[in-house]
Structure prediction request, 638 residues.
Amino acid sequence: MLLTSLTAYICVKVYSPGIPVNDQSYGSILRHWTTIERKLLFVGVGFTALLTAINLIAPPGNWDSLNYHLYFPATWYRDGTLTILPLPFGDPAPPYYPINSSLIYLWLILPFDSLAVADIGQAPFILFSALGLYAVARQCDMPVTTARWAALLTLFVPMITVTGTLWSTNDVIFVTSWLISLATVLRASRTKSIRDIALAGIAIGLTIGVKGFAIAFCSLFLPWIVVILWRQCRVSWRYAIAGITAIALPIVLLGSFSYVRNWLVTGNPLYPYRLTVGPFSFPGVIDKQWFDQHSFSIYNLHLLPFEPGYFNISILLILAIPSIFRSILQKKWSLQHIFLLLLIVSYIFIFMVQLPIKSPRFLAAPMLLVLLLVAYFVSVDILSSEQMKQRWLIIGACIGIIVSLLASALSMGTNLFEPSPNSLHLDLKAGKALWDYAQQIPAWTVIQYLLGIVAFAYLIWYIYNYWLQRPRLVSVCISFCLIFVLSAGLERYDQYEFYAYDRAHYAHLGRIWRWVNEHSSGQRIAYIGTAVPLPLVGHHIKNRVTAINVGGGQLLHEVERPIPPDYPITSFPDNRSSEPNREIWLQNLIEHQIDLIVVFNDNTIIWPEIEWMASDQLYFSRVYQDDNGSVWRFRRNP
Prediction:
């Protein structure tokens, strides 16, 4: 758990650098909190726990999770090796993405031999993101009250809560690591100590290793890094070398693996994106024309306030306009606030200009910084009563719960005890779906969620109060209770795993997935025509699942021949060899020791393998077929 441990350690170091460990200090954490703040904390953590519990007993449902976020670590676990895995029937980029978040999911698969715990592996990062925002506030010399409010409201931001609890992606992981990087960079620029500079390097390295576009957003830290190193140079050249080493070495060790690997394998560190930097050109298969056809290539920034994932932040901003104007007129702002504002603008500028895929979930980090600034101006407004400020907090929390509840019900189904996962993008299109769903959501579903929130919030409050009295005993009891709850959740997951894919989005695929799971026991499976191969691994990741090329070469780097920068990009319907050859394909099946071949029908493409298998009863026999696909048994030695 190296990556998670490092992230947690950085949070703790920045958030609370020195709390003595004794029984009397346990109660000091919430001692100065108001009643409303404590209640919001328990409700926020309780709501997070409720959504996490729902996802614990449901199989992965997010499209990206089924495509690569969990498929890669599951295959690494079964094969016992970290390799680049081909995805020939979809986006060619994921096999070359940074793998830090995938390694976290791999560590969560290892002790349980199951995807259940890995599927909720992003949930703790919701709390870490709140701590990261708290740390940024404190490093910007904002009042403790401001930091608390921003951290509390983070627990109710739908883009953070829903994404972190229900989907095993890496968006919340990235937000957390980026915020912690910002906090550590700010701290290092103030203390100038080698320890803090090294912590900043660790945080930035972890962040760069999470997402491919993280390099662009981490470049925003360069002004502070330059100031840090310049101050080190003023002391002596030894301090300068020590500072450069302290920040560069962790970045290289923790963040460069995927980029170096891609460079060595393909000649392009950002492969498969075609790249030109000055006189240097790097090969790739994705260029601007390819991205122009992508559904997320264009984003209307003026619609950002209406995004359901950030809707409560927009409402809080509107309600805070009088406080913002009064605070500005009273000159309750500093250079740090201007820097934060410039950072937000720069982040959004990079998002709009540099990012080829403009999904609103990539704006979570600057939106949390907006929330922080708004919370600051509200907290320092002396003309606004404490009662008004508390209502402001409650409104933000309530709107966040309502949107998150609707998104959860739309994504996981109406029955909390039998969730049926669906893939949902929390964007403007989802906003209309949420509005329509709000008018027809069953009352029993709302009651289930509300009762669940109250029950979890009360349970956390009850445990906390007893923890203050006997912390060590309660900690031991909590550990045993968590083990029991986890065991019960895993048992429920095992019983329900392949029967949950019965809703419209996955119903057609779910029938094939269930059949393969019921009729396999550790087979090697080749798949054709789907971009979501994860469920084919079966119960407890028992099967080995891969794609097989229809011609010569491997299913990577465009059949091992990267397209030169000055050549036009030709697009194949399945990113495989353009010269199908039955004999070569048959030899590929034998070399990979394939037992089953699962074919998913595509109305626009006729896979040549289907004709080959149908005409060769010596090697192949069809064992399952429906309107959406078929399963064939392959006899390697007929």
In short: Confidence is low (pLDDT under 50) at residues 1-26. The longest strand covers residues 620-626. The beta strands are 275-277, 280-282, 524-528, 544-546, 596-600, 620-626, 629-634.
